[in-house]
Amino acid sequence: MQKLTIKLHTPMEDDRPVYITGNFNNWAPADPSWRMHQDDARNFSFTFDNIEGLPDEIEYKFTRGSWNDVELDDYGNEPPHNRMISRYERCAEDEIRNWRRDGKFHNDRFLPVINIISEQFEIPQLIKTRRITALLPWNYYETDKHFPVIYLQDGQNLFDDFAPFGSWGLAKRLAFLAERGKAEFIVIAIDHAESERIAEFTPTLPTSVLGSGDGEKYARFMAETLKPYIDSHYRTRPEREFTGIGGSSMGGLISIYAAMLHPEKYSRLMLFSPSFWVTPNLPIRFIDEVPQFEGRIYIYGGGRESEMLVGRLQAFYDKINTVNHERNLQVRLSINPMGRHSELEWGREFPMAAEWLFDFEE
Prior knowledge:
Elements: E1 4-9, E2 19-22, E3 37-40, E4 43-48, E5 57-63, E6 71-72, E7 83-86, E8 91-95, E9 98-99, E10 113-123, E11 128-136, E12 149-152, H1 170-179, E13 186-190, H2 197-201, H3 215-233, E14 243-248, H4 250-261, E15 268-272, H5 282-289, E16 295-302, H6 309-321, E17 329-336, H7 343-357
Parallel strand pairs: 1-8, 12-13, 12-14, 14-15, 15-16, 16-17
Antiparallel strand pairs: 1-4, 2-5, 3-4, 5-7, 6-9, 10-11, 11-13
Helix pairs in contact: 1-7, 3-4
């Protein structure tokens, strides 16, 4: 009688039992009949003693006893697809590094310190004010360390669970990274200008669809006013080698434009679904005309966002790779074929981007 054994390795210490669930048991998340045998502290196994009656293609997941305690991927996200194996296989070996606990993918102990710098921070270049928020490492006030900084656009959408267009869940993402020793940086969240957001984030050069915007003034604000303030009031590593900028959609566009105008300030770019449609030649000009920019560029886009987005991101990636052997320029391109234009998608991508952008040990 043929048997099928599924083995699981999970390196994180956890005292909860593990269950296997799938299309063979009506997806019951905590049926005692499907509790895995604990071989040792980090290894589990389950053997189907008789494959007769099992589906030809077995779909399955692992839980710690409920759907609030399900397996997660390496970056705290629920895997988009079920695990699969043919019932005619003899053995499968799986690994899970992270689990939900009581519905959470993070540990509250590691949540960042959220410090609202000002509700009305002055932007002299635009004669406006804006809310600026610092998300400090959870142990910022328990150490004398100095930290890298990333400046992120659209602050309203980064960590507010009730944001009208959704949220990145940034505080929780940072807690997830911090528990693993990978959130050793400060985030400065800059609120957008509401009805004037598009104008502020549009480059100050001719564009075919939006005209000429206030992007140059906004970029000057970040480089000449905001960054000096942050460096003088917080324990930062102010050098360009330790300073990043990023955003999503139009926030991604203004971020690359700001780095183009002030390459002496930034060396880490986080570009999520950047609105290159506004000025399609800008990313190529950035590489050709700003050779002094060196560092890392992380590019992300979703396959369900627009017909041309992925092609433009691929072209930008290819362009960078034609010159990165001539200067210190590294790039990563991440495409989710099923990804949509949403805060949720960008939040899911953030841990992967941040881990790579702020890895100074490679």
